Amino acid sequence: MAVQREWLDRDFYADLGVASDASAADIKKAYRKLAAQLHPDRNPGDTAAEERFKKVSEANSVLSDATKRKEYDEARALMASGRYRGGGGDPFGGAGGFTARPGGGGYTTTGGFDIGDLGDLFGAGGGGGGAGFDIGDLFGGMGRSRGRAAQQPQRPRRGNDLQAETTLAFRDAVKGNTIRLEVTSPSPCTSCHGSGAKAGTSPRTCTACNGSGFIQRDQGHFGFAEPDPECQGTGTRIDEPCPDCSGSGVQVRKRTINVKIPVGVEDGQRIRLTGQGEAGQRGTPSGDLYVTVHVTPDPLFTRSGNDLKLTLPVSFSELVLGATVSVPTLDGKVGVKIPPHTADGRVLRLKGRGVPKRAGGAGDLLVTVKVAVPPKLDEAALDAMKAYAEAEKADGFDPRAGWGR
After folding, report:
1. Backbone dihedral angles phi then psi of residue 365, each to the nearest 5 degrees
2. 337 DSSP β-pair partners
3. How far apart (Å, rounded) are the C-alpha atoms in residues 193 and 317?
4. Which domains does the chain have, with CATH numbers?
5. Is 209 annotated as a binding residue?
6. By the 8 A CB rule, do 308 and 330 touch?
7. Residue 399 and residue 403: Cα distance in Å, rounded?
8. Are strands 307-314 and 365-371 parallel, antiparallel or unpaired?
9. The three-state (H, E, C) secondary structure of 281-314, written as one string
10. Distance from CA of residue 92 to its chain's centroid?
11. Does 206 count as an annotated binding residue?
12. What count of other Cβ atoms lies within 10 Å of the Cβ of residue 363?
């Protein structure tokens, strides 16, 4: 993933009010606190709070992602060392082009940047991307042929990803469901449909770069492309910006999303909704929405992979004599046959009565029989039990035979 140029102008740690060595937990805590304070629902009509909310959300989207944070930290360290100086249109911060280095080991800019040392600067490997930087993005197409560099379009800046949470009953999670989720976030403007242009008008192709988003600069035998300052690298111009979104194509608003929960979703699982995150600027792609599902426990069932487990209370006589009892499943009750002389704690398997599988079929229902001791017996039942106990002794049955030796 390439480091976005906008990152170099922002201090995301300062936006969240944390130190640069803050832990992931500290970043998460700081973001939640600020997001709660600045959320548009709590500050209706407060544009300053809305802008701050956007900055805090963007900072969190970078710093909460280990890969993005690493790239961001490396880019900041590179800038602090003076080895990369952005500014103006020249990514090297200087006015000169490239000159050959004596001895033939690469090239240097007039500012002293050694292209031959890219491997040291960005990490080992011939690709120059060991630290996560996209060299093609950083140097704007340097080293390509002139015609190809001039036609290379800029990647659109997609919107940020969003995080949401929902809680489901155990059986809804197991069997799948569709829920409605309310999200307040930057979304495509309803007036211009995300284009940024006033209703009835459309963005036009930038004539300075012919829609490529880049302009070509030639330096002797070399050429490189840089973002067109006329259109900020988008390749389009807006003559009449949309008044409702000031030409950004984005509005912060509440929207309702139908989220399809797949069968068999587990507690803590994340569902990705492509393109349902924050809207990108001026019609560029939206980010994704990640929904974390929390599942409430069920009073009867527990889960082990695609199998369900259930404890079935039975009487002693049902285990000895055998019986057919009614057992609940996800789809209603079914009859289960308990064979005579079944041991307490035995597991009976009901095939196909477990968690539905996405590819078809289902796991099993594992029923554990457990003797329930009656809290009280009447005199007739006690006499019968005593008679049974005597018969048991006479028959030579000892439940502890061989036990405890």
Report:
1. -105, 120
2. 324
3. 72
4. 156-296 (2.60.260.20), 302-394 (2.60.260.20)
5. no
6. yes
7. 9
8. parallel
9. HHHCCCCCEEEEEEECCCCCCEEECCEEEEEEEE
10. 35
11. no
12. 20
Angle between helices 47-63 and 24-38 (to 10 degrees): 160
Bridging pattern class, strands 289-295 and 177-188: unpaired
Q: Which of 375, 377, 353 is nearest to 366 (CA)?
A: 353
* pLDDT in single tens digits along all 405 residues of the chain: 344 555 667 888 988 999 988 999 999 999 989 988 888 778 877 888 888 888 888 889 889 988 888 888 887 777 665 554 444 333 333 333 333 333 333 333 333 333 333 333 333 333 333 333 343 343 333 333 344 434 444 445 678 899 999 999 999 999 988 999 988 888 888 888 888 888 888 889 888 888 888 888 776 556 667 888 878 777 888 888 899 888 888 888 888 999 999 999 999 999 999 999 888 877 778 899 999 999 999 999 999 999 999 999 999 999 999 999 999 999 999 999 999 999 999 999 999 999 999 888 999 999 999 999 999 989 999 999 899 889 988 988 888 888 877
Whole-number CA gyration radius for the chain: 34
- Three-state secondary structure call for residue 370: strand
Q: Using CA atoms, how far apart are residues 265 and 172, in angstroms rounded to an integer?
A: 9
Q: How far apart are the first and last CA of the chain?
A: 67
Q: State how far the Cα of 94 lies from the Cα of 87, in Å rounded to an integer.
A: 9
Compute φ and ψ for 13, nearest 5 degrees: -65, -40
Adjacent-strand bridge partners of 166:
293
231 is annotated as contributing to ligand binding: no
Q: Which H or E element spans position 149?
A: helix 146-151
Euclidean distance between CA atoms 170 and 299, whole angstroms: 9
Question: Which amino acid type is present at position 244?
Answer: D
Look up residue 276 and give its two tokens.
């349902």
DSSP 373: P
Q: How far apart are CA 49 and CA 43, in angstroms?
A: 7
CA angle 154, 158, 160 (to 5 degrees): 145
Q: Is the dihedral of CA 337, 339, 344, 350 positive or negative?
A: negative
Neighbours of 281 (CB within 10 A): 20
Between CA 40 and CA 32 the distance in angstroms is: 14
> Rounded distance, CA 231 to CA 217, Å?
17
Q: Is 242 annotated as a binding residue?
A: yes
**Contact between 117 and 100 (Cβ < 8 Å):** no
Q: For residue 140, how many C-alpha atoms fall within 13 Å in the half-sphere facing its CB?
A: 23
